[in-house]
Structures are given as structure tokens and as C-alpha cells.
Amino acid sequence: MIKKLLFSLIILAFISCKKNTPIHPDQNEINPVGTWYLKSTNDGATTYDSSGFPCLSDNKLILNSDGTYHTHYAGTDSCYLIHTSTVKVNIGIPGQPDISGTFTQNKNTLFFKNQYGSFSSTISNSNGLIQMTERDTIVNNISTSVFIKL
């Protein structure tokens, strides 16, 4: 009886354990795990780069080895791309809630899921920098964003 109870508890423990799929890129894939910062973004017509808008790089994307991620705005002031008396477009506000979700990797394409939907991005090695190009139609209706891995 005790053996059956012990065996049942072990099976129950295995069934009830939630396990995320860890990210283990093969030798031909770029490892995406780590912290990324926003280098540039565009709205389909205008490109905004961190050299002209330094606060863009305060937008962080943190990819964890367990296949989870979250975004974080680390700036101490709002990051406005456009700020006039009639139009205000920002891409970072201090204290804004982080967005979190999961991601998977297939070669050098990352597939993201969060509470707003799903999207994909491509990672590459460009001029010695590991960059991620993301087509984003979920948050802020921005067409393309480029992140650089720290």
C-alpha cells in the first residue's frame, strides 16, 4: 500500500510540474538570450534612431533562457518621438507596465506571444552587432523596430 501511495505521489509530481522549454540554440543559430535595447523604429514613413533620440535605448527587451521575456522602459523621463501642442507620440513612459510573454526560436527567427497577440522577428549578425528586426503591429502601430543585443 505504501509503495502504491509513493508511486502515485511521484507520478502526480511529474504531471503537475510546469516546465518551460529552455532555449538552446544549435551551433548555426544566434543565441538570443540576454538584454536588448531599441536602436531604431519607424512608423512606415519616418525612421527614429537612438542617435537622434537617445531615450529609445532606454527601451529594453530581456529574453530569458527558459523561453520567457519581458520589456522594460528604464528611462527617467518620457521618450517622445513627436511632441507638439497637438500631437504627442511616445515610446516609453517611466513606470509604464512591462509586457511579458514567451518566445521560441526556429533557426534565426524568434516567435513571441503575449497578452496582446503574437509576432515574430529575425536575428542576425550585422557589422559585428547582433540585431533583431521586428515587424510590430501590436504595440504602438509601429512598422519596424531594430534591437541590438548588449
What class, by secondary structure content?
A: mainly beta
Q: Would you tell me the overall average pLDDT?
A: 81
Sheet of most strands = 8 strands, antiparallel, barrel
Unreliable runs, pLDDT <50, ≥5 residues? Answer: 1-21
Task: Report the sheet-strand fraction.
Answer: 35-45%
Terminus-to-terminus distance: 56 Å
Q: Give the tally of structural domains.
A: 1
Second-tier CATH architecture: Beta Barrel
Number of helices: 1
- The share of residues in helices is 10-25%
Name the CATH class: Mainly Beta
Enumerate the strands of the largest sheet in spatial order, edge to edge or round the barrel. Answer: 1-3-4-7-8-9-10-11
How many individual β-strands? 11
> What is the approximate shape?
globular
Q: What Rg, in angstroms, do the CA atoms define?
A: 20 Å
Characterise the protein shown here.
- It is a single chain.
- This protein has one domain (21-149): Lipocalin (Beta Barrel), CATH 2.40.128.
- The chain is mainly beta and 150 residues long.
- The strands form 2 sheets. Strands 1-3-4-7-8-9-10-11 form an 8-stranded antiparallel barrel. A two-stranded antiparallel sheet has the order 5-6.
- 20% of the residues are buried.
- Mean pLDDT is 81; it is low at 1-21.
- Helix content is 10%, strand content 44%.
